[in-house]
Amino acid sequence: MDFDRRSFLKASSSAIVGGMALSGTAAAGHLSVSDPAITTTDLNIREQPSTSASVKATADQWTGGHIVDGPTSADGYTWWKVSFNQDSDNGRITGWVAEGDAWLDGPTDFSYPCWGFITQTSAEDGGAIDIGNDYGTPPVAARDGTAYTGYGDRCGYYVSIDHGGGWTSIYCHMQERYVSDGQTVSEGQQIGEMGSTGNSTGPHVHFAIRYNGANQDIPGFDGQDLIAGSGIPKSYL
């Protein structure tokens, strides 16, 4: 995966012990429940919010996640419960991580729009990705914006969200759309149902992030198991 890491804080001054950074400053306090987030270093995922709690897994650097609980303070750290996407070593997993010195960072510029598996990567698909799942799986807005709908021979029924500043996101092949033209939508809001309309051989969402009409690369690997609302590990804005 080719990540743009320019805007991410590196934990270079932290001591990494057992896969988790164990020194750093107090949490910045910019995260909240439901935020899309990413790891900026390999980060231990624990059963409970404590450095003495058992480790369930270690998330790779630049793994996307969705914050589901927290914050809570323990052992000198601020802890968040996060559901993480599959990485190179682990399937989807939920547990507690220390925010530390932005070891868990967010909210990210954009989030992945639905549960499912990447069936085609941006490298294979001109910057966009395909996320497959069952008919009716609910795609959500990847960022706040203004929604528009349409139909194309290739894209089928789609939703386009204008995020301002030349940025848009596209969601293709939908069987149902729950938004109308000009409607304001919030990140994480359901915008329809996954389908297979247009040029499609099965239920999936063709997801693109565009800047001034040009597709931007979206990180991910074939077969990666994604969580709706999880952070995309790339700086776009």
TrEMBL record:
Pfam families: Peptidase_M23 (PF01551)
Ranges for domain M23ase beta-sheet core: 128-217
InterPro entries assigned to the protein according to its UniProt record, in alphabetical order: Cell_wall_metabolism_enzyme, Dup_hybrid_motif, M23ase_b-sheet_dom, TAT_signal
Superkingdom in the source lineage: Archaea
Protein's UniProt name: Peptidoglycan DD-metalloendopeptidase family protein
